[in-house]
Design brief:
Order of helices and strands: HHHHHHHHHH
Number of helices: 10
Oligomer: single chain
Number of strands: 0
Radius of gyration: 19 Å
Largest sheet: none
Structural class: mainly alpha
Length: 192
């Protein structure tokens, strides 16, 4: 049974969300490079130190759901039922992430990210970190017994599936196509 968060946790979560929402609004209104950390803190009515207690960097404000996405991917591996195949829950999570990132209103955010070298670099590092976390979760599963290289490769394929499908004209069809290739790679890795 999950215990509901206490008052303090709810307040922290609300402050974090307020900061993220304020930052995104300012970035979209004025441009990412034109908005500083102090601008975001002032507009959100928090101290700069409070902002940094929730977000490690300016770039992290744009990717405020980063930790949640990473946890969802690793939980797709660790929380699956005994003997449940690995790829279906990962596919469901990637599909959900792609739908989230291609929903109405997401296009201006992605245009902003593409226009900023700092945000593109942050996203790439974030994807690599997600892939390493996912590879670690796969490697820790005693039922899978794959090499480290195989775990890292499959994890990278899964993370790249998200990026490729998000950019495709038909994201759902892209996820289907990409996961057919991942399944083939998975079969090869398990046979090795």
């Amino acid at each position: 049974m999950t215990v509901p968060p206490g008052r303090r946790e709810r307040k922290k979560a609300a402050t974090r969300q307020k900061i993220a929402d304020t930052a995104l609004r300012l970035f979209l209104e004025r441009g990412y490079d034109a908005v500083g950390i102090r601008d975001v803190a002032a507009e959100a009515d928090v101290a700069v130190t409070t902002l940094f207690s929730h977000f490690a960097s300016k770039e992290a404000l744009v990717f405020e759901q980063d930790t949640d996405f990473e946890q969802r991917l690793t939980q797709a591996v660790t929380a699956r039922a005994p003997q449940e195949p690995l790829l279906p829950p990962l596919r469901r999570e990637i599909q959900a992430l792609v739908r989230h990132c291609t929903a109405d209103g997401a296009a201006p955010i992605w245009r902003m990210i593409e226009a900023s070298p700092a945000l593109r670099e942050y996203e790439e590092l974030m994807r690599l970190r997600h892939a390493e976390s996912l590879a670690t979760a796969i490697a820790a599963d005693p039922d899978l017994s794959l090499t480290t290289t195989a775990c890292r490769t499959i994890a990278r394929f899964v993370i790249d599936a998200y990026s490729l499908a998000r950019e495709a004209a038909d994201p759902d069809a892209a996820v289907d196509e990409i996961f057919r290739m991942i399944e083939a790679a998975w079969d090869v890795a398990r046979a090795a």
